[in-house]
Write a structure and sequence with these properties.
The protein is α+β, with helices and mostly antiparallel strands. The protein has a single domain, classed as DNA repair protein Rad52/59/22 (Enolase-like, domain 1). Helix content is about 20%, strand content about 30%. The protein has helices at about 10-15, 40-50, 115-135, 150-155, and strands at about 20, 25-30, 35-40, 55-70, 75-90, 95-115, 175, 200-205, 210-215, 230-235. The strands form four sheets. A three-stranded antiparallel sheet has the order 2-3-10. A hairpin with a 4-residue loop joins strand 2 (about 25-30) and strand 3. The longest helix has 21 residues, at about 115-135. The radius of gyration is 19 Å and the shape is flat. It starts with 7 loop residues before the first helix and ends in a 6-residue tail after the last strand.
């Protein structure tokens, strides 16, 4: 319901849900571990779904350049820290609007950028997105707090195909919508090393709605060989048992 504010009780139901596996990206961690996280554009999409595109806003509170140096001719290294405030507006039972805010810190860095401006530009965007996601996770599981739930991530990691059964209460998962042809709206996620994330028939809206659709998957975005923005948890999984 983009563009329309949700009631407080509706937001509470949604924020207590877990993101479906198509929202979760992964990359190799240390040793046999896998690192699971939500990409910045997925968090923004979820904020729009939950609060409406007019129901949330961000403010850059502060920014600080920790590192900016030319490590060799034509190669720049940069590191930037920033604080972002995320505000959301909802309606209570009487229809009155209520606004609440959360702040958190984010960090971005880049190595071997081709110019000073390129290094600063990439690190500023990365730091802002990181801070936005860290602020968003304070609102609930659906916006990223679930990325620190080891049990949830272990179950998500075991989903191998688009229509394979998920070991979850279906009413606790928030899924992406599909079009009339039953296909996922938007690009699908490419198969990654280790495990391919996918899902089965699940609910897409608040638990009480009872509407079911089928999901797809989402492609991870890689910038300069590294993930531009991420936070989450490492999970040590015995892949012979998955």
């Amino acid at each position: 319901m983009k563009g329309k504010r949700r009631r407080e009780e509706d937001c509470a139901l949604l924020l207590d849900m877990y993101p479906g596996p198509e929202y979760v990206s992964e990359r190799p961690g240390q040793g046999t571990k896998k690192f699971f996280y939500l990409e910045g554009h997925e968090v923004i999409s979820l904020l729009n779904d939950i609060f409406g595109f007019m129901g949330w806003s961000t403010r850059l509170v502060s920014t600080e350049v920790d590192e900016l140096s030319e490590t060799q001719p034509g190669r720049w290294t940069a590191g930037i820290c920033c604080v972002v405030e995320l505000s959301v507006t909802i309606e209570d039972e009487s229809g009155r609007r209520k606004t609440t805010s959360r702040q958190d810190v984010g960090y971005g860095d880049v190595v071997n950028a081709r110019s000073k401006m390129d290094a600063l530009g990439k690190t500023r965007k990365s730091a802002f997105t990181d801070a936005l996601k860290r602020a968003a996770r304070q609102y609930g599981k659906l916006l990223g707090d679930s990325m620190y739930d080891k049990e949830y991530l272990t179950r998500i990691a075991k989903v191998k195909g688009d229509f394979e059964k998920i070991d979850f209460d279906v009413k606790k998962l928030y899924r992406k919508p599909v079009n009339e042809g039953g296909e996922l709206v938007g690009p699908t996620r490419k198969k990654k090393r280790g495990v391919e994330l996918g899902g089965a028939k699940q609910v897409v809206d608040a638990r009480r709605d009872g509407r079911e659709v089928e999901n797809g998957s989402k492609e991870n975005v890689v910038v300069n060989g590294e993930n531009e923005d991420e936070f989450g948890s490492d999970v040590d999984i015995d892949w012979d048992e998955v």
